[in-house]
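User: I'm writing a tutorial on reading structure tokens. Could you give me a worked example: one chain, its sequence, then its tokens, then a sentence or two explaining what the tokens reveal?
Assistant: Sure. Here is the example chain.
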Amino acid sequence: MASTNSWTLEIPSPVAAPRLFRAAVMDWHTLAPKLASHVVASAHPVEGEGGVGSVRQFNFASGMPFGYMKEKLEFLDADKCECKSTLVEGGGIGVAIETATSHIKVEAAADSGSLVKVDSTYKLLPAVEVNDEIAKAKESVTAIFKAAEAFLIANPEAYN
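And here are its predicted structure tokens:
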């Protein structure tokens, strides 16, 4: 029988929430191949203009566990720096997981920085067990936000 699991993650950042959300979430398909080419070889929109219902594809570098993944934007509130996406193809769909969704909210912090909150829920296929995949997923998400953070600190005019 398939089981539904979840994990959460919080990542503090010195970068303001709107800038970090735009760079690390909304425009990550543009930045990822530049900032994390060792992970993401290329990325591009597949459907839509970046709003709810849009789908984008990330093609991974060789040596990564999956060749690609497609994610669909299910919910977006850009003013509140919040979105929810669903993995629709690749990235383990049909191999280890039946469904996977991520809810990301980037909140303003008291120090004019931000706090990234990630909630991920996934349903495993029958007889599949996770071992260190959750730790790897958390490391990957953290790396995305830290790469965007470093880019934004080095480029203070970007994503204002």
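What the tokens reveal: The CA atoms of residues 7 and 135 lie 10 Å apart. The helical segments are 17-26, 28-35, 133-154.
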